Amino acid sequence: QVHLVESGGGLVQAGDSLRLSCAGSGRTLTNAVLAWFRQAPGKEREFVAAISWDFDSQTYSNSVKGRFTVSRDNAKNTVYLQMNSLQPADTAVYYCAVRYSNYHSPNKNDYNYWGQGTQVTVSA
Question: In three state form, how does the secondary structure of 76-98 look?
Fold first, then answer.
């Protein structure tokens, strides 16, 4: 088992930046893919970004490409999501997820472990 805890969400204005953190504990993240998903009210949970724990490979959805950056600090067992140029459409609960695979799957059903989520609200 791996336990994931997100933090860093909050209320910001359009154009602002925010950095989310996801701290892992328990099972090692070696050989894992760490991903960020988000879910807005009434919408399906959607893929945002992913990064391999052991490589520099990153994947982004088209909606956030160029604005968001996923990174990690292996020594701290932590994954980050730097969000710039935030817009109201980015408002959602953001979740950290893990799957033990090399493929950066955009399918939420391919991920085995999830954090509790952190709310990001962007006002116009």
Answer: HCEEEEEECCCCHHHCEEEEEEE
CA atoms within 13 A on the CB side of 86: 23
The Cβ of residue 37 has, within 10 Å, a number of other Cβ atoms equal to 24
pLDDT, residue 10, reads 98
Q: Residue 94: phi, psi to the nearest 5?
A: -100, 130
Q: How far is CA 109 from the centre of its chain?
A: 15
C-alpha 93: how far from its chain's center? Answer: 10
Length of the chain: 124
pLDDT digits (tens, 9 = 90+) for 81-120: 999 999 999 999 999 999 999 899 999 999 999 999 999 9
Q: Cβ distance 104 to 33 under 8 Å? A: yes
Token pair belonging to 94: 């953001």
